[in-house]
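Below is a filled-in request sheet from our internal design queue. Each sheet records the structural input a requester submitted and the sequence that came back. We keep these sheets so that new team members can see what a complete request looks like end to end.

REQUESTER: design group, bay 2
PRIORITY: normal
MODE: inverse folding
CHAIN LENGTH: 144
BACKBONE (tokenized):
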């Protein structure tokens, strides 16, 4: 079983990543930013592709040009972990999803890139987060 994307692009480098890979257009894109970012990712989808929006970090409405909806049949879906569909799973269903993800991480099939930093350096960790995209999550750990 192979997990993950063949190529990962940010809004800033999407065009160059797409052109350099020579892959066909993607069927699926995830957008946690909203606003104009949604348009940026939708442009690289194949006809009938889907954008899944699961966050709104820009605090702007999701923006998709009508031309992408009409001529390329791009679809936009929303996902909310606490939403109706997930709630219908109940606690057992949610636990099963979490167990599956944990197992994938433990087996090394799903990699989570993290950087550990002692709690005493929390100010530095916050400053790093403010710098923008880092490619890793910062985990604060208890000082030893």
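RETURNED SEQUENCE:
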């Amino acid at each position: 079983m192979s997990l993950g994307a063949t190529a990962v692009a940010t809004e800033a480098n999407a065009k160059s990543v797409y052109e350099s890979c020579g892959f066909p257009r993607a069927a699926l894109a995830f957008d946690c930013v909203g606003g104009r970012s949604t348009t940026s990712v939708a442009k690289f989808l194949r006809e009938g592709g889907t954008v899944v929006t699961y966050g709104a970090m820009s605090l702007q409405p999701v923006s998709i040009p009508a031309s992408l909806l009409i001529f390329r049949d791009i679809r936009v879906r929303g996902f909310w972990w606490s939403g109706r569909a997930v709630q219908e799973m109940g606690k057992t269903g949610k636990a099963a999803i979490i167990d599956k993800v944990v197992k994938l991480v433990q087996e090394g099939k799903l990699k989570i890139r993290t950087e550990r930093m002692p709690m005493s350096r929390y100010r530095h960790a916050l400053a790093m987060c403010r710098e923008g995209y880092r490619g890793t999550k910062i985990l604060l750990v208890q000082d030893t």
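SHEET NOTES:
- The longest strand covers residues 45-53.
- Residues 91-141 form one domain.
FILED BY: M.R.
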